[in-house]
Amino acid sequence: MTEASLIVSLPLLAAVVTAASARVARPVGLIATAANAALAILLARRVLAEGAQVTHLGGWEAPLGIAFETDGLAAVMILMAAIVGVAVAVQASDDRTPRSATDPGAFWPLWLATLGAMNALFLSADLFNLYVTFEILGLAAVGLTALTGTRRALRAAFDYLSAGLAGSLLLLLGVALAYAAAGQVDLSVVPALTESAQGRISLALIFAGLAVKAALFPLHFWMPAAHSSAAPVASALLSALVVKAAIYVALRLSLDGGIGAEPLRVAMAAAGAGAMLWGSWHALRADRLKLLVAHSTVAQVGLISLALGVAPGAADSTLWHAAVLLMLSHAFAKAAMFLAVGRIAEELGHDRISGLNREELRPGAAEFAFAVAAVSLIGLPPTAGFVGKWVLIEGLIDRDAWIWVALVFAGTVLSAAYLSRVVSRCLRGGPHVAPGARRPQWRAGDVAALGLAVSALLLGLGSALPFALLEITVT
Amino acid sequence: MSDLLPLAILLTSLGVAPVILALPDHWSRLRTALNLGAATIKVALVAWLSMAVASGADFGVGIAIAPGLSLELQADALSVLFLALSSVLWLLTTIYAVGYLEGGTDRSRFFGFFSLCVASTVGIAMAGNLFTFLVFFELLTLATWPLVVHRGSAEAHRAGRIYLIYTLGGGLALTLGTIWLYALAGDVPFTPRGVLGDLPETHRASVTAIFVLLIAGVGVKAALVPLHGWLPVSMVAPAPVSALLHAVAVVKSGAYGIMRIVYDVYGVDTVQALGLALPLAALAALTILWGSIRALRQDDLKKRLAYSTVSQVSYITLGVALISPLAAIGGLAHLIHQGIMKITLFLAAGNFAEARGVKTVSAMDGMGRLMPGTTLAFTIGALGMIGIPPLAGFVSKWYLGAGGLDVGQPAVIALLAGSSLLNAAYFLPILQRAWFRPPPEDVVPKRGIGWMLVAPPAVTAALVVAAGLLANAPFSPLGWTRFIVSLEYL
Amino acid sequence: MTTDLVYHVAGAGLTGLALWRLATCRDALRRIMALNVLAIGIAMVLLASGFDAATGRTDPVPQAFALTGIVVLVSVTAALLALAERIGGRSND
Questions:
Q1: Dihedrals phi, psi of B95, to nearest 5 degrees
Q2: A80 close to A327: Cβ distance less than 8 angstroms
Q3: Which residues cross the membrane (chain C) (predicted)?
Q4: Please, which contacts does C6-14 make with residues 24 or more away whose CB atoms are closer than 8 Å?
Q5: Are C54 and C84 in contact (CB under 8 A)?
């Protein structure tokens, strides 16, 4: 299957080209991002038509070669990254958007490397591949964090990188122990791991490593600073996609029976619930817009982790399908939100929430995009967030898991509370805006933010497509 | 083609909403043309649809969202009742709002959300299952919030916050109830006489709890006591919004939700068997009295009207909860009757404020002489509310009373009498001041108001008279509700 | 058997020490050192688990894992040092 090989190699090749020549970085980056989106669509169509596929890179079979497995889940994630990527690239291609104090071309190679690594990660069929792609992704993501070159961004990048390294070392140890217990690193050995004590320890270590990378409470300490001090385009990628990569791996492992170990599942769900409350509390108290959005990611990752923790595994697909839908919804809405915040801050010159009521500035398209994205994140109909929460809660009620239902509802109320802090300020008007107040000009960034926010809204109506793809998942 | 008619009706407002939102504020001609064009087309389409439904046609169109979950639009006799109300009043309110907001700020935002609000109402009317109903019901909350805070003042934002807390809280209860019901019974399509009749006895407690959640959810919008607190507060909104919120979109969606839940989800027999009818009727009776008593003490004209809405909307709930065909006819007809009467009152009140700056009952002295046309419209609305024959309100109250006797609850007659007395007690002083007292010396000079403000209340006042006088005509609200009730009770 | 256990215990001990230092220390250089110690501890556990005392043979795959870990460690350490150096440079701004 050529799409699978292309979708990994094309972004990585383009990353090399854009790194080599800053002059062509922007056109090459844009074309590569668009081509990646086209490939993602082709890939999804192929999976829908022909079912899951295995590709051996360069014709080499295991154990020497690298095998890519393309199934519905992988296709959904690749599509997600491709769509978010297009919007982010559109905003980044606007020359007037300040991205980096040092090197305006640095964004493109980092973004393309992130994209290539993510695509490879989604297609990986063994634990070791997952580990390697994770490392490439991690390094590119740190580069994105440090892009603005400010002291705060550098410090956040440092914390991010050291936390990420600790996480991946735990992951490596887990993978190695898994090998020692089962004799191979294919994802299919995961069920056998739950049998022995050593296997369970290795799984716990892998999940601890993933939790650091996914910023799952209480291992999220590095994340709000990193996501709130990076450039808006970088924050959008980090929050919407990079964090999802770790969740995706956790989902893969749990589908293969990995969190069949009951204590691990409960720990994931409990950590998720803690994250929802902790993240929401900090978002309620945040004084800067980007910090609020970053803390909201902590809370939303918690919700997804809760859904994964309560999901009993591959045999019963309702709950993990819900988790994937929540991941999609969060990816679109959160990326839209960061892009919108970037534009708002650009117009205002700051991102303090109390200073949003500027009399000489009318609310513009970016603020509207923020509001629409907020509707998705809260999970109001007809968004994908709503459909995801619906499926999740229906599944929980089916299992009489009322405590989790209550927690999901509490998280929803809290998200409505902290997001309405901002949205109500987006609706300023009437006599409280000066008569000659200007309205911000439309920019590429507004189009990108609004486009993503509206896709999050419409995805709810089109949820049948991701559900159909998820049915074709190899477990 | 005709299967797509419900979709076309939805799109006439859902489709224009984003276009209007994106228009620059000063393009008022194009915006008005879009608004009025869409509203007129919608009225025509609804007229076509009601003819078809009357001749027995079925409409249904839907898309699958997730396994076991689909959005379905349908059109039955009950949908047509609500559709006709919202499409006709949307047209009139749009004309009024164009005149009212002339020269104001943020008009594109206002009319965009106004259209979205009507789109949600139409979606609620044509929802084919509980899920679809929920989707549009929540969309209505979102679409009305920017309208409530439109003026942008601190007071408006406070009102908006209270409005959101109430409606989103209700939305959560409704969502939980709906999901729970789907988990128990699968898809819940709206079906005459309900779908829960054959649910096993073991689910009795769950089904009762779900009923409470659902009614609490829609009860917020229907302003059932004690969930009515948002309604008087949100009076800070501009007059056309108050008219729309109180006469059509929000409170009626709540009342309509109660109808759908009792008739087409549970079925009257199941509600009766679960022993839920009497508590609901008692709650409605309490709301009728409480709203009227609170209305007595309001000097602010719009607040008095708001408490009157709290009271009057519960006639609809009462008609549903009494489980008698006659009472049901009264309640359903009141959905229309209260709508046209209340919108007349609100539009007239808006004109008093616009032309003379009159916002309180105590400032109404001599308005009959100063603004005879508007005061006449107001008077017709008020007399209708009290239930003076032959106006629309009398017809509803007559059938409600007959229904009460029918099920052996003569207390209903006492309730209606008491409530009508209270109605008279808070409306007649206004009329007395307006017609029989001289205008004050320092009367505010009249600001000119155009035909766009004068005509809509005149038309709705004429409708109030017609709905009463021509109650026996086949296409009158009463005639149509008889048709609906014959489907639910046969 | 005992030598095997010694490596396991020592590796686990180093890992624990390093994680504790990472959690408690704010100084950039010390954190980088702690990460390196963490990697060495993990590498020791890996190498020890690859050795089969009964046959006296070693399995190459854990060694490959350890090698990959070291490569990642070196590159990340370089990146961390560069970042730390820049942060230090910026403090005079």
A1: -55, -45
A2: yes
A3: 6-23, 32-51, 63-84
A4: C7/C44, C7/C45, C7/C47, C7/C48, C8/C44, C8/C45, C8/C48, C8/C49, C10/C41, C10/C44, C11/C41, C11/C42, C11/C43, C11/C44, C11/C45, C11/C46, C11/C48, C12/C41, C12/C45, C13/C41, C14/C38, C14/C40, C14/C41, C14/C44
A5: no
Of C49, C72, C86, the CB nearest to A168: C72
Token digits for C70? 């070291």
The domain total for chain B is: 1
Nearest chain A residue to C31, by CA: A162
Written as one letter, the residue type at A335 is A
CA–CA separation, A317 and A326 (whole Å) = 14
Top pLDDT among B25 and A392 is at A392
Shortest distance between the Cα of C74 and any Cα of chain A, in A, equals 11
Helix (H), strand (E) counts: chain C: 3, 2
Distances (CA, A) of C3 to A253, B175, C10: 34, 62, 10
A89-116 pLDDT tens trace: 888 887 655 544 445 578 888 899 999 9
Give the rounded percent of residues in chain A with a pLDDT score beyond 90. 24
Tokens representing C64 are: 């490959």
The predicted-structure confidence for B251-282, as pLDDT tens digits, reads as follows 999 999 999 999 889 888 888 888 888 999 99
Q: Is residue B412 part of a domain?
A: yes
Of C28, C69, C87, the CB nearest to A169: C69
Q: How many CB pairs under 8 A join A and C?
A: 78
Structural domain includes residue B79: no
Q: What is the rounded (10 degree) CA torsion for B136, B138, B143, B148?
A: 140
Q: What is the amino acid identity at position B78?
A: L
Q: Which domains are present in chain C?
A: 2-90 (1.10.287)
Cβ of A179 and C62 within 8 Å?
yes
Domain holding B274, by residue range, is 148-489
Distance in angstroms (rounded) separating the CA atoms of residues B3 and B137: 23
Question: Above 50 in pLDDT, residue C93?
Answer: no
Reported as type and span, the H/E element at residue B467 is helix B451-469
Per-residue model confidence as pLDDT tens digits over C43-56: 888 787 777 666 77
Which residues make Cβ contacts (< 8 Å) with residue A441, sequence separation at least 6? Answer: none
